[in-house]
Here is the input.
Amino acid sequence: MNKFSRFCLWNAILLILIASPLISEGRNEFDVLHYEIFIDLYEGLMQRNGYYNGYVKIKLVLNKSSNEINIHSASGVIQIDSVFLSENKLGYQQNYENLKIIFPSLISQGETLIVAIYFQRRSDLERGFYFYRSDEVSPNLPSDIAYTMSEPSDARYWLPCYDEPWDKAKVDLIIKVRSSYLVASNGLLIRDEINGNERIFHWRSKHPMSTYLIAFAVSEYITFSDWYHKVSNPSDSIEVKYYVWREDSLKAVSAFKNVVDMMKFFSLKFGEYPFEKYGMVAVYPFRYGGMEHQTMTTIHRKWLDGNSEGGIAHELAHQWWGDLVTCETWAEIWLNEGFASYGDALYTEYKYGFEAFKSKLEYWAKAYFWEDSIIRYPIYNPPSGRLFGTAVYYKGAWVLHMLRNLIGDSAFFAVLQEWGRRYAYGTGTTQKFIQVVNDITGEDLSWFFNQWVYEAGYPVLDFSVSFANYDTLFINLRQTQRNAIIFRFPIEFKIQAKNLDTILTFWTYSADTVYIITLNRLSALGDIKVQIDPNGKILKKVLSFPSKEVNLPLPFDFSLHQNYPNPFNSSTTISFEIAGGSKVYLCELKIFDVLGREIRKAFSSELGSGKYNIHFVADEISSGVYFYELRVSDGSKLVYRGFKKMVLIK
Here is the structure.
């Protein structure tokens, strides 16, 4: 659900701040199999107040024996008239958002029941259900409009139901309206019956859905359709149906021109489009950009202006990631929003090229960094009020982007297709997704998700570049982030010179790492430019500039010699020479392990020209391979840097 469209950003933030999503660690005592929902909006449209009567028949199976069940129904908004089990009238208690239904006797585990609840909504509260009169909205609407919007937990504000994302059920939705109105809803239309001034629409879903995905929209719409021919069977097609106001029809044709192309692209990448139909309905006013109601996305009317293709792609991608596979609890919301956001980015890459794709990811990174500067949180189980924050959307998309670059395109898209196949029409968790990744790659990539999903923050990088001996390039990479872990990731460096243009990949595991690159005839290459992460594969912030240019040092006679003995047992001698002349230089000799971590500063002093021997004692250092580095500076710049390897055997 794209809540961060430009035109509705502040309204979205307002709703985010007041939202209080329920996150449950348990599961219910029953499973809902089917909802039959009837909403009589005829009088509400005639009276122009949006009030309605209705019923919901809930078919469910008990997971344990009980003499009561508890579902959701917001008191003060939903008035319960009566509850029945077959012909038996049942007792009930309604309190806040809960409805307890009491059976006359104990019902056995495994028994299937149909509970009928008759209710009415006589409230103007704009939550779950929205009604607007055309003459009271500025600018005036072409007609009155009523629609539902339930994510995360507002379905209970327009009908009694079990309102948790892990409980999916098939749905029949029957809506009575005035004869001039159309109803857009989930599934296939199996009845459109006009009787005088009344009209009944009956929509039926083929596949189960969570309650927050059940929806309808009612207004004096016109419709038009495209057809998507399945990539798995081009002779089989499904209707793509659009509901808009007549005044918007030409704009809508242009705004929706690439929807079928998107469906084809996503079907090739994610697996065949998973439902019986697709469509979009435009509404206004609307606090959001779009909402991925199963098979019938609700969008803001302003998306028809033609500048919201990314949002349209995002909502369509949700049909796979959010609808086909739904987050099991709201703690897992990144599995919906991060995945749909990356779907939008993937379509951008396919349609408009790599640079447009890269620019979109960079923009998202900046938006995420801004929010992170205000409040930092992991994308798993975000805090109250941040369920739909930029970290969930944009960092979530970046996590998938980094995973793709880590395991390669072939494995990445195999993971997505297996994710959709394994948990089709069900729910998923981060741990389940990690298992799919591990199964496809044959590796344990838990570490990747631990740092990017379960931990907060991102790496902040600083790097420097220098030369030694005219044939060795040193890249010093430092992670400088605060209040965040040290990240492990591969990082690319692009190295360019007169006769050189290459990209090298290195791993970083520590806060401070030195990479040593030996190049043939470096002195003939001229000045060298080094760029970090040139293709934007890592979510990070780079201090100063992402590229550095370095000049070859003047040919002073500095040198660092191999230590002796080598290998050594407990002590060794390290020799070096300082160039002739009258200058005095600051000389520092440091010891590093194979991961580039500084182990010890062996020597630091100001020296003039001459030859020097440093006796190094390796006490309290374990056996292994080490490197020693000599840095010589004249107070304003580095004039020499030497680097050699030694082996300690105890």
About this structure: Residues 4-26 have pLDDT under 50 and may be disordered. The longest strand covers residues 30-40. The first helix runs from residue 9 to 18.
